[in-house]
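To: structure subgroup
Subject: Chain for Friday's discussion

All,

I'm putting the inputs and outputs inline so they're searchable in the archive.
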Amino acid sequence: EGLRNHLRAALWLSNVKKCGYWRVHELKGVPYLHDRWYRPPRPVKAYNFPREIDGGDDIYPHTNGTYTLFHLPHVTVSAAPLRHTVPTVGYVIEEKSRPGRVDTDVIFPIIERNAEELRQMYPGKNPKKIIQRLKSLGAGEAYRFPDGTV
């Protein structure tokens, strides 16, 4: 807490003439986790800076002490307090799992080793077409080659 006022004061005191529009989404209630030397910050009211956009969110912690800054279908950004000499948070960016790439340097020798059997299983098709099938496997699924390689 205090980032919004800190930015306002820093921009004001540094006599900034030009800057882009900005909005602050501030974490509220960040605990102080250091054992000693804590002096609570004095409340300061810094006035809105000219290019500050109203509407920044005040983000409060969940019951477990973590903050969710934003959540999209493919990514979540969270924060949690850290032990430091000033109230501090660390950030975590979590991406949803997605299919990886097929390592052809590993797969091609297996395909070559099983080429004859694959031609019999899939007549008229190039054995290397099996790569498309491998890419379409879901999480936890496996493909067993004729020689038993999984």
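Points worth raising on Friday:
Helices lie at 3-13, 104-113, 115-121, 130-135.
Residues 99-150 form one domain.

D.
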